[in-house]
Amino acid sequence: MTSIVIPPPVTGPGSSVLRPSTFDMPVPTAGPPIRFDHVGEYAGFVNHSPHRVLHKNKTYPTALHLLEAMKFIHQPALQERIRTCKDVTDMYPLSANLQEHVRPDWGQVFLKVMEDVLYLKFKQHPTLRALLMRTGIADIIYADENVYWGEGPTGEGLNELGKALVHLRERLRQEGEN
Question: Which residues cross the membrane (predicted)?
Answer without folding.
Answer: none
